[in-house]
Amino acid sequence: MKLTLTRPELVAMLRGTEEILQERLPVSLALRLRQVVRALQPHAKDAEELEREIVLRYAVKDDAGNPVPVLDGEGAPQPGMVQVTDPEAAHRELRELALCTVQVEVEPVSAAELEAAGLRVSGAAIVGLGELLVA
User: Fold this and answer.
1) What's the predicted TM-score (pTM) here?
2) For residue 47, which of 117, 82, 114, 94 has the smallest C-alpha distance?
């Protein structure tokens, strides 16, 4: 099946699939889910690299050219957060990235297959499968 996914859908599907793959699965289901991961990973990596480029483009830089982190009330750096020169422009580009879509060709997974496998995974993993999961 061909799926058109936004970045948030892609990331959720990838995370959900990877979580399910941590379980002991029937061989055919495990193989199909591994193929899904391989189909999604290049798109996720591309989007992650572009996100990093956008953040670095708008980041406030110190004298050494390194991004300046956002500090909490106690002066400690906030993990993964940097000060930006133009928050509106950065937000606009990051929002555009989130709305971009990619197309992937994958084999669907049925709810009955997952149920038969007796999975113990989070609801977020199942929800993350999105359109990959069929009745």
Assistant:
1) 0.83
2) 94
